[in-house]
Design goal:
The protein is α/β, with parallel strands linked by helices. It has 18 helices and 21 strands. It has helices spanning 14-23, 32-40, 49-52, 67-74, 80-88, 104-108, 115-120, 125-135, 149-159, 164-192, 247-260, 285-295, 313-319, 334-340, 395-408, 434-445, 464-472, 486-495; strands at 3-8, 27-30, 46-47, 96-100, 141-143, 205-211, 221-226, 238-241, 267-272, 275-281, 304-307, 326-329, 347-350, 362-367, 370-375, 386-387, 416-419, 424-428, 453-456, 476-479, 499-502. The strands form five sheets. It has a six-stranded mixed beta sheet. It has a six-stranded mixed beta sheet with strand order 16-21-20-19-17-18, with helices on both faces. A five-stranded parallel beta sheet has the order 3-2-1-4-5, with helices on both faces. Helix 14 links the parallel strand 12 and strand 13. The longest helix is centred in the middle third of the chain and has 29 residues, at 164-192. The N and C termini lie far apart (62 Å).
Length: 510
């Protein structure tokens, strides 16, 4: 008679599976709560204590850590020495393990969990048992996912055993499962000890969905989210209308959220290809939308809009005048939802806590053969500004300069932002030459540039950019400073009666 050891935290489908396994002639071994559920359902069950000849001890911390369990799992059935050893020690084969682990992830995500609760939900016996079974997959079937119950039962009914291909598939799932489980635990302890860059690092992410394709149709892709729940992110959003998000949708939406979180007042951010094509702040969201739209009426078409206030009827009607891929907001009024849902191709994503910005997360970027990791760029130093020109900016100019500085922090380098009345009017970004970025911003601002202000994510290496900004009518500039040509740049600004502020901090975004 073949034997299966069943001990699961997630009891979904387990009684039906065990009943069918018993009908196929398998002996069921079980522990604690699982054993009680199976017996109550009428499944004959052998207590694990009768196999180990040892009681569960230490409040259940030790129950399957025993040679009679691991010997029965790990011996090679076609190795004469192994077979003799288990026979001499009266160890019987265990041919299947059905197990899933204590809910550590759910426990750390529950604000009511105490530290003791968290520690007690670190499973020890379960990972040891399923790893042993997975290592010996040539002979042992191991199931950690209730979705695989029917697959295994169907094979047993047809062939009296699972195929080697199925056992290998199940073993692969075990090692993915335990690696993720351990990564969540290690991430927790790194956080407890405030270890930013541990000697070895594994990121625990869980698949949300496979994507139709990646950045381009010839690339495959998938979307994963962190094990620990992070509020105010695209991963925590609730899509209330529209088809599934694509790779580019998710990436662009994330870019929109990063910019949106810089601003406290009613704000609209319009994004195209992960860069802003318009940002506006206003007394209300409708005013903010109009400002963002006016920055670039063409590029916003087919873009993404993020709002930090509820989308109401008036804003929804404006949005519906053009084609927009996605609207992100903390909430949508009933009227707004009805208006926007008239278009089947728009996606509406509700993100609670959309203004949450106190993340301790790291930014990381994949490179060939490695990984780059850094702090999030969450500093602005707007309390330590230095006016370096003879002319000081007016209160209105200073307000616009700070608005532009927040925006410039979030565009691809080299990048500059032209702004007026807390709205972007011209954006130049992603250039290898800062002068070209300035030229592009001026060109895109057209006649709105006069009396506008400019923010640059990095210093000006030459005075040529200041010359064309002055000629266009720009009245004030904010930039990091730090160039060997700073003196010439300041003198050029003074020559044209412009105000200039140094922040002492650059914001490259590559």
């Amino acid at each position: 008679m073949k034997r299966a050891l069943i001990s699961v935290y997630d009891k979904e489908g387990i009684t039906e599976f065990a009943k069918n396994l018993s009908l196929l002639g398998w002996e069921i071994i079980s522990t604690g709560g699982t054993s009680k559920i199976l017996k109550d359902a009428g499944v004959d069950t052998v207590e694990v204590e009768s196999i180990t000849n040892f009681p569960e001890i230490l409040d259940g911390r030790v129950k399957t850590l025993n040679p009679y369990i691991h010997g029965g799992l790990l011996y090679k059935r076609d190795n004469k020495a192994h077979v003799k050893t288990v026979e001499d020690l009266h160890i019987k084969a265990i041919d299947m393990v059905v197990n899933n682990l204590y809910p550590f992830e759910e426990t750390i995500n529950n604000p009511k969990s105490s530290y003791e609760d968290i520690i007690e939900n670190i499973d020890i016996g379960g990972p040891s048992m399923i790893r042993a079974a997975a290592k010996n997959y040539e002979y042992v079937t191991v199931i950690v996912d209730p979705k695989d119950y029917n697959k295994v039962l169907n094979e047993l009914k047809d062939h009296d055993d699972t195929s080697i291909e199925t056992r290998k598939y199940l073993a692969r799932k075990v090692f993915n499962y335990t690696a993720y489980y351990d990564a969540v635990i290690s991430d927790f302890f790194n956080g407890e000890e405030n270890i930013k860059y541990p000697e070895r690092i594994t990121f625990p992410f869980k698949k949300v969905q496979e994507l139709r394709y990646g950045e381009n149709p010839h690339q495959s892709g998938a979307f994963y989210k962190k094990a620990s729940e992070v509020k105010g992110t695209i991963a925590s959003g609730n899509q209330i209308h529209g088809k599934e998000l694509s790779y580019n949708n998710i990436n662009d939406a994330n870019g929109a959220l990063k910019i949106l979180k810089e601003f406290d007042e009613p704000t609209i951010v319009a994004i195209k290809h992960s860069n802003p094509c318009g940002i506006g702040c206003g007394e209300n969201l409708l005013e903010a939308y109009i400002k963002a739209f006016e920055c670039d009426k063409e590029s916003i078409f087919g873009g993404i809009i993020a709002a930090n206030r509820e989308i109401d009827k008036d804003v929804a009607e404006k949005i519906n005048e053009i084609f927009i891929e996605i609207v992100l907001a903390p909430s949508f009024s009933e009227e707004a939802t009805e208006i926007l849902s008239r278009k089947k191709n728009i996606r509406l994503v509700q993100i609670e806590d959309i203004m949450k910005n106190n993340y301790e997360e790291l930014d990381f970027k994949n490179v060939l053969g490695g990984l780059l990791i850094q702090d999030r760029d969450n500093k602005l130093l707007i309390d330590d500004l230095k006016v370096v020109t003879k002319k000081k900016p007016s209160d209105e100019e200073l307000e616009d300069l700070l608005f532009a500085w927040k925006a410039a922090k979030n565009i691809s380098s080299n990048g500059v932002i032209l702004a007026k009345d807390k709205a972007t009017i011209g954006i130049g970004l992603g250039e290898v030459n800062r002068f070209w970025a300035v030229e592009n911003a001026i060109s895109r601002a057209e006649d709105k540039v006069k009396n506008g202000v400019l923010a640059s994510d990095g210093f000006f290496p030459f005075k040529d950019s200041i010359e064309i900004l002055a000629k266009a009518g720009v009245s004030a500039i904010i930039q990091p400073g730090g160039s060997i040509k700073d003196k010439e740049v300041i003198e050029e600004a003074d020559k044209h009666g412009m105000a200039m502020i140094f922040t002492g901090m650059r914001h490259f975004k590559h």
